Amino acid sequence: MGLRRIRVMDLEVVTIGTELVLGHTLDTNASYLARALAAVGARVARTTSVPDIPEAIRDAVAFYAGLMDACLRAYGWSADMGAPRDGD
Questions:
Q1: Which range has the worst mean pLDDT, 2-6, 14-18, 63-67?
Q2: Taking the complete model, does pTM exceed 0.85, yes or no?
Q3: Partner of 18 at 20 to 30 A CA spacing, among 3, 25, 37, 47?
Q4: How do residues 36-69 score in pLDDT, each as one tens digit?
Q5: Cα–Cα distance between 60 and 48 in angstroms, integer?
Q6: Nearest residue to 66 via CA among 12, 28, 6
């Protein structure tokens, strides 16, 4: 019985938050996700932060989804943003 070759997935992690882009908050989500994904055999090719602007989020996800096997979005919820809306 021979060894099976398993294909490694190339991933992009897009973290979302204007506070990340402006440097007000350290992006710990990207480093946590990269370590966790690497531990299960995935390869994080890049991490990118985008501001809380729907068009910027949509553009980043669409761009990287075309280049990578998967594109993961990660975001938090700021206390001053109020309650989340359905679908967020």
A1: 2-6
A2: no
A3: 37
A4: 998 988 899 999 999 999 999 999 999 988 888 8
A5: 8
A6: 12
Whether the CA torsion 53, 73, 70, 7 is positive or negative: it is: positive
Contacts of residue 20, defined as CB under 8 A and 6 or more positions apart, other chains included, come to 27, 49
Overall number of domains in the chain: 1
17 domain-assigned = yes
- Residue that has been written with the tokens 């910027």 in this structure: 56
What are phi and psi for residue 70, nearest 5 degrees? -155, 155
Examine residue 47 and state whether it is found in any structural domain, yes or no: no
Task: Tell me whether residue 71 is in a domain.
Answer: yes
**Residue 22 forms part of a structural domain:** yes
Give just the sign of the alpha carbon dihedral 11, 14, 20, 23. Answer: positive
Phi and psi angles of residue 26, each rounded to the nearest 5 degrees, phi first: -70, 135
